[in-house]
Write a structure and sequence with these properties.
Distance between the termini of chain A: 29 Å
Largest sheet of chain A: 6 strands, mixed
Helix content of chain B: over 70%
Order of helices and strands of chain B: HHHHEEHHHHHHHHHHH
Radius of gyration of chain B: 26 Å
Number of strands of chain A: 20
Shape of chain A: elongated
Structural class of chain B: mainly alpha
Helix content of chain A: 10-25%
Oligomer: heterodimer
Strand order of the largest sheet of chain B: 1-2
Largest interface: A-B, 31 and 22 residues
Strand content of chain A: 25-35%
Structural class of chain A: alpha+beta
Shape of chain B: globular
Chain lengths: 369, 317
């Protein structure tokens, strides 16, 4: 069995001043995988990336690349590529010299350098700009040049430190597809750092979610979304309403009691305190007074605000769950029923399996496995 | 309307914003009054006055340098280039000119070699105490004034001073630096260092720290990161600093006088003695003009070299 491309074991890191940025971080990335480090700012994801690249030394723990311990190996001997958030293109060099930099450092002869730079620029669909200066390029072109510069020496591992975060949405989506294409065509292992949950879900096979310097959960996107290990994970993906309550069992299955209201939940969920995540896209709205019907749950509510956003209609409603609670619902545009209007009394409905419940022993604390 | 709501929000943040709001209002009022085209030129008046005095002084110096002068009767003579020919024909002058220029070139280069890593460390270190230490090392000497600083070196470099004592103690024999070019050079480099650092520092700060990291991840060892990424981006500041340091070194006076003990004179010392000891202000004027020309040529060469490198880089791509 081939060893994982990247293996980090119990890495700790504190910065000058004593603030701990990484707390016992371990993860494995397989060869050819598209892996994402996802987390809010300050969660330590960029620090993990820089430790893999060798730009920061961990206080303790080991870093292995393809089975080899590289913890003490300097960055210039690690044979990997990084695309930085600022892109870090050399402003004093032309596009060609930027892309050729790594080849020059590896003493590759001039002739081969030329052909490989041209290949790399063609790969990112930017032929014919090699003699331009970096400041003459548009934002999207710079992104592509930075990618070409990273890929030109055919690295086994490509690290991306939020290079897309500064782009406007349309360009970012184009570049995301571009990254996916390059990953497919080259088979290179990619580790991407982002705080954009959509980008993480769209691009990666597996995601490590970080919070406060710890790895909270590592899984594929769908599992992360459907079976979050903690309220934090549930809250980070899909922008849900989180409600705490107590799970108990009766004749019909399991239910979660929130503020005196009983919500049916998946039968597999353990008894005890739990947090339910109600995501706007998992909920639907029906006329008041019709009962739950085919749905597991029906919660009386009143529409406060409704607005068409292109992909569908976004609603804000208030429901009574032992106090007024604001619930957001998103109904896709293909739903052809007439829209509900503000002030209208309705029912919020959902299926138990679409609303994950995180069992917790300490409410609001970390997830128990 | 918009500014009112803005200042409302600022006021809630703290009293400091009142000051900022006040300044903005004054600035707006100022721009409403408007100075107009004529008023704009009025602002240049102090600078123009300064320039006028400079030009007046320069013209009178040139005029003096082109006249003969009777040092006994202290009377101006007829129009002539004799002041220049007598200086240029003087063996001692040529020796001093060579010494000054050679020392200016050497001290400038030594200063830059020290200043570049100094400025980079100062800009990049995360350790506050180190930055403070470097700041003190570089800038406290300028605060002490020329004479105090130079007398300090007199004590340190004296044949019975601490440096000689250490060197002798190590077994390298007695050391007598005072009166040598070494002493003058050490003193001069200390004068030039803060200037070079002041010019280099903003250029170092302007370089994205990620560039060095990017170069490392692409396989550049530390030495190559320095030569291929940092140095090329410091080029303009480096040549600027070289020009300033060369000019200052050419004009050195206190270090050759005190640390050179009067036996390692620079052009500045020769000028002083010509003007005030001889005293021949007309010959001194000619000497001053020669110094000016030499410095202009030197700075011109430095700038031209910088431009040439810049162009070659663009062509080679």
């Amino acid at each position: 069995m081939t060893p994982p491309m990247v293996e980090i074991e119990s890495v700790n890191k504190s910065f000058i001043g004593g603030q701990q940025v990484l707390n016992d971080v371990s993860l494995k990335v397989e060869e050819g995988e598209f892996f994402t480090l996802l987390g809010p700012s300050g969660s330590g994801k960029t620090t993990v990336l820089r430790i893999i690249a060798g730009l920061i030394a961990p206080d303790s723990g080991t870093v292995r690349l393809a089975g080899e311990d590289v913890t003490d190996r300097p960055a210039h001997e690690r044979d990997l590529a990084v695309v930085f958030q600022s892109l870090a293109l050399f402003p004093h060099l032309t596009v060609r010299d930027n892309v050729a930099f790594a080849l020059r450092m590896r003493r590759i002869p001039r002739q081969e350098r030329r052909t490989r730079v041209d290949e790399a620029l063609a790969l990112v669909q930017l032929p014919g700009i090699s003699e331009r200066r970096v400041e003459e390029l548009s934002g999207g072109q710079r992104q592509r040049v930075a990618l070409a510069r990273a890929l030109v020496y055919r690295p086994r591992l490509l690290l991306l430190d939020e290079p897309l975060s500064a782009l406007d949405r349309r360009l970012r989506e184009t570049m995301q597809l571009e990254l996916q294409r390059l990953h497919r065509e080259l088979g290179v292992t990619i580790i991407n750092v982002t705080h954009d949950q959509r980008e993480a879900l769209l691009l990666s096979r597996r995601i490590a979610l970080l919070d406060g310097g710890r790895v909270v959960q590592i899984d594929n996107g769908e599992n992360l979304y459907r079976n979050p290990a903690s309220p934090f994970v549930a809250g980070f993906l899909g922008d849900p309403l989180l409600l705490e309550g107590t799970v108990s069992r009766n004749g019909n299955g399991a239910s979660l009691s929130v503020g005196g209201v009983s919500l049916f939940v998946d039968a597999a969920i353990k008894d005890g305190p739990g947090t339910i995540a109600l995501r706007p896209e998992a909920l639907d709205i029906v006329e008041a007074g019709g009962g739950a019907g085919e749905w597991d749950n029906a919660l009386p509510a009143k529409v406060v605000f409704a607005s068409f956003d292109g992909a569908g209609t976004f609603y804000e409603l208030v429901a009574d769950l032992g106090g007024e609670v604001t619930v957001r619902v998103h109904i896709p545009a293909r739903d052809t029923r007439p829209a509900f209007s503000a002030g209208q009394a309705v029912q919020i409905v959902w299926r138990a399996r679409d609303a994950p419940v995180i069992s917790s022993f300490v409410t609001g604390g970390e997830a128990g496995d | 309307m918009e500014s009112a709501s803005l200042s409302g929000r600022r006021a809630s943040r703290g009293p400091g914003w009142h000051l900022v709001d006040g300044l903005i209002r004054i600035r707006r009022a100022g721009s409403r009054i408007g100075l107009g085209r004529v008023g704009g030129f009025l602002l240049l008046l102090p600078a123009a006055a300064l320039l006028a005095f400079l030009i007046f002084g320069l013209v009178s110096l040139i005029s003096n340098s082109l006249h003969e002068y009777d040092t006994f009767l202290l009377k101006e003579g007829s129009l002539s280039t004799s002041q220049y020919t007598s200086i240029l024909g003087d063996e001692h002058f040529r020796e001093v000119l060579l010494r000054t220029t050679a020392m200016a070139v050497v001290t400038t280069m030594v200063t830059l070699v020290i200043a570049v890593p100094f400025a980079i460390t100062m800009a990049r270190t995360r350790r506050r105490w180190l930055r403070l230490l470097l700041l003190i090392i570089a800038f406290v000497p300028i605060l002490t004034g020329d004479i105090t600083r130079t007398y300090g070196w007199l004590v340190v470099l004296d044949a019975n001073g601490p440096l000689a004592w250490v060197v002798d103690g190590v077994g390298l024999g007695p050391l007598s630096l005072l009166g040598t070019l070494w002493a003058v050079g050490i003193g001069t480099v200390q004068v030039l260092l803060p200037l070079a650092i002041l010019i280099l520092l903003p250029a170092v700060v302007a370089i994205d720290p990620n560039l060095a990291d990017a170069a490392k991840t692409m396989g550049a060892r530390p030495y190559r990161v320095f030569t291929t990424v940092l140095l090329p981006q410091l080029r303009i500041a480096l040549f600027g600093a070289a020009g300033v340091c060369f000019t200052m070194a050419m004009n050195e006076f206190a270090n050759p006088a005190l640390l050179g003990q009067g036996i390692q004179d620079y052009l500045g010392n020769l000028l002083y003695s010509t003007y005030l000891v001889l005293p021949n202000p007309y010959k001194g004027a000619a000497l001053g003009m020669i110094m000016l020309v030499v410095i202009l040529i030197g700075v011109g060469l430095i700038t031209a070299t910088g431009r040439l490198l810049e162009r070659r880089r663009r062509v080679s791509g």
